[in-house]
Write a structure and sequence with these properties.
Order of helices and strands: HEEHEEHEEE
Strand order of the largest sheet: 3-4-6
Mean pLDDT: 90
Largest sheet: 3 strands, antiparallel
Shape: rod-shaped
Number of helices: 3
Structural class: alpha+beta
Helix content: 10-25%
Strand content: 15-25%
Distance between the termini: 97 Å
Oligomer: single chain
Number of strands: 7
Bound molecules: iron/sulfur cluster
CATH class of one domain: Alpha Beta
Low-confidence stretches: 161-169
Radius of gyration: 30 Å
């Protein structure tokens, strides 16, 4: 093959390759964008699924009451020691001894988000929030106290208890 033919063959191959690349570029240019403009869209279009497990929390009501009885089941079932419960014994108004929650520590840095703790809680006292902006510079900040300051366990009133169905056939 002469050098003349080789030159033009290479030239046409180069042009063909360039056009193939340009075709992909132009196609992508007009394709609708799917990229999330985060964090600008944090308060507008950002969607985090409800069931996303971002962080364990203890549920409190408006009276700063929770349902945790400090039974320790979540701590016992956690596969990697992420939960540490501190309890104390108090004397109730009617003179009875009662175990109550003092501190509920949760280490977000070692949690695997397996949900075992939530599934094993007999009181429904804890749940996962779908918050996700949890990056910090020091690991110790990831150890969180889940029971709010000054909170106490919700008193179970008789009227609040589920009625038992006595009309079973
Ligand atoms: S989600 Fe799993 S790893 Fe995290 S605290 Fe609960 S049981 Fe432990
Ligand atoms: S969160 Fe639930 S399982 Fe854990 S100590 Fe409290 S009541 Fe028990």
């Amino acid at each position: 093959m002469s050098s003349f033919t080789t030159y033009f063959t290479s030239l046409f191959k180069g042009i063909k390759s360039l056009l193939t690349g340009m075709k992909v570029t132009i196609k992508e240019f007009f394709t609708p964008k799917v990229t999330e403009c985060y964090p600008e869209n944090r308060h507008t279009t950002l969607h985090v699924p409800e069931r996303f497990r971002g962080e364990l929390i203890m549920i409190h009501n408006e009276q700063n009451e929770h349902s945790c009885s400090a039974c320790g089941l979540c701590q016992m079932n956690c596969p990697n020691g992420t939960i540490k419960i501190e309890s104390e014994i108090i004397e109730t108004e009617d003179g009875k001894k009662k175990k109550v929650l003092k501190n509920y520590f949760y280490d977000l840095g070692s949690c695997t988000f397996c949900n075992v703790c939530v599934m094993n809680c007999p009181q429904g006292a804890i749940k996962f929030e779908n918050t996700f902006e949890n990056a910090v510079f020091r690991r110790e900040i990831l150890v969180k106290k889940l029971n709010h300051e000054g909170s106490k366990m919700k008193e179970k009133k008789v009227a609040e208890q589920k009625p038992t169905n006595t009309n079973k056939e």
